[in-house]
Amino acid sequence: MSSVRLALRVLRVDGRTRTSAILTGLGVAVATALVLLLVGLPFATEARGERSMWQEPSYSSGEDGPATLLLTSSEDYADGSKVERVDVAPLTDPRAIDLPPGIDRLPGPGETLLSPELARLVDGTPGSQLGDRFGEVVGVLGEDALQYPDQLVALVGHTPQTITPGALRQDGFAVGGAEQDPLLQLLAGVGVVVLLVPSLVLVASAARLTAARRERRLAALRLAGATPRQVVEMVAAETAIAAVGGAAIGFAVSPVLHSLAAHVPWNGGTWQPGDFTLPLAVSLPITVAMPVLVLLAAVLALRRVVSTPLGAAGSHARKPLHWWRLLALPLAGLAFTLAVTADEPTMMTVLGGLLLIVASAALVGPWVTSAVGGIFVRIWRRPAMLLAGRRLRDDPRGAYRASAGVVLAVFTGSMALTLLPTFESMAGSSSPYRDSVLYVPGLDAAEARQIAERADADLARYGQRERTAQVGEVYLSRGPDSGESAMVLDCASAGTLLRLDMDGACAGQPGVYAEYPMNLNGVHVSAIWNEPGPALAADTPVRPIRATDADVSSVPVIDPAVLPSGFEPQAVTVAVAATEANREVVRTALAGAAGGVQVESREMRLADQQTQLEDLRRVTVIGLIAAGALSGCSAAIATAGSVMDRRRTFGALLAAGTPVRVLARALRTEAAMPAMVATVGAGAVGVLVGMGLFSLVDDGSVVLSPWILAPVVLGVGVALLAASVCRPALNRVRAEPLADE
Description:
Layout: H1 3-13, H2 15-52, E1 69-78, E2 81-90, E3 111-114, H3 116-123, E4 136-140, E5 152-157, E6 168-170, H4 182-207, H5 211-223, H6 228-261, H7 280-300, H8 303-307, H9 309-314, H10 328-340, H11 347-379, H12 383-394, H13 396-426, E7 437-444, H14 445-461, E8 469-477, E9 484-488, H15 491-497, E10 500-501, E11 512-514, E12 524-526, E13 542-544, E14 546-547, E15 557-558, E16 571-577, H16 583-594, H17 602-645, H18 647-655, H19 660-694, H20 710-723, H21 726-735
Parallel strand pairs: 2-5, 3-4, 9-15, 11-13
Antiparallel strand pairs: 1-2, 1-6, 3-5, 7-16, 8-9, 8-12, 8-16, 10-14, 11-15
Helix pairs in contact: 1-2, 1-6, 2-4, 2-6, 2-7, 4-11, 4-13, 4-17, 6-7, 10-11, 11-12, 11-13, 11-19, 12-13, 12-19, 13-17, 13-19, 13-20, 14-16, 17-20, 17-21, 19-20, 19-21
């Protein structure tokens, strides 16, 4: 009889083996689908980037050949949502310019193409609050031109004379060559490590439901004359039926998982359905590798049956674990430290170090479990504790298997909750302007005057009282390679526009306003860094001010009245103070006057940071829920499997009169206590790894919040819930005739 036919017969007649195979298949399906999704995330960002590359100018385009257009891009905001604005001016016949997918024509001067969502907003909003920023709407952009379905994009047409001077010469729109999002690459790699392992633990736990019965069956076959190869083939066939079927199911349902993931926002928007489509050259090897890993694990587990069938049949005692297992964790930690502290760390080396730390738990965890069992054996006061201790000492690997997924989930949660509060503490903006101020920085004096005049005219046309202020940027120095920047603004306007407390400083004659004492004797003012300029009057008064916020980058303010005669700043910022009621109107006036030059505000900088933080929070919550669910299921199945493995032992104890409550307490103790001890250690290691990962981003210190204890508490809770299946499993043992074994 062939190995496959024998495996099918076993599955047909043995209900417990059939249940184990079904759960194994489901575990492989989950692992396959998760890995396909996580590996597909970087490819999805690449697909996004391919569609939206035309929205950004290329700094190398137009250098080697004739330019066909001028292009500049900027960010705008409408009702709190980001708008991507692209301004274009053709330098040749517009019909000769190749257009990106999703754009059917190039807008002429004063015309604009809008994305469908932005067109809907423009139609439902007064022109003074949005539509007047762009011009006459003459068409709609297609989905192939949008980064995500609801992206707000405006393609605005100009002539070469009316487009902003900062526009870049291009030999066409950028198409192709998009790169994957490095942050999502890193998160996907970490996700593969921290979610694949619980999935494989779930598979192993399901396979262990019939481990003892399978060992005895295979040992009997070996004693009856079966060769080691025949035994291996039997197990491989039995496992392959479940693993291959599970991998096929995972591959088949992965599109459903991808469609669900398409609704999870990232970087401001959701995804198009086809973004997660993986190339067959990537998806097929992954699908094949999953059952191969399961088969390899099943074959390696047969060493005892193949080499010593009598030992397997008689369940002889296993060898004790050696102390050298404890070296695995510090060695893995050293490898991870070397990876993150390298001069040029790569993602593969960092993920490799992280994988070593995760793998070291498989060596350290059983030793810790055995140590806990030894403590129970020495200090036991009740029979339940003695029974639990003996089990933990006799089979620490099997006992730890139930808590392996929980340990990894706690490790992942502690690592994530170490990074998130630290990233949140870094959020902020050093912009000196108040939240209500909209401004256009980096202009030359002539361009600033033109923008200010146009914006003031539009503000007057919209019936607004606000007017622009022109803030000069100069340098104060005493000699070469020294000096500091300063802002040229009168005292009253500085109090309105800047995050500075000017109370009392505006009384008396104009002067210089600073947070610290300044001696102006020999100080020169220049329009360009490290260039000579006229000297300030030594008797210019210096008045004290203070910043209203701790994160403000405060610079001295110079009243224009005290500047040397004939001196004018070359770099100017045009700023307008808005109110909550007229903010969108002021933004429309300033954006329309700027004609594609970036309009900034402090809230815009904070909004981008909050979007990234929300993405990280969302990914963390989803990952922790998935890891927690997988680890909880694997712990429950492994705990139930440990009861089934020792069915003969428990049957004998029950037949000898041992109370069920004593056995149930012993099972709960052996299932929960090692997990509770291991989760504390996993939480500490997770914090240290989180600190190491943060060092890749910033050299600052890590913020430790009380939330880092939450994964440990939840891990203990999951371990206790998983231990609660002991009593039902024990009742199942009581209900089945012992002769079935």
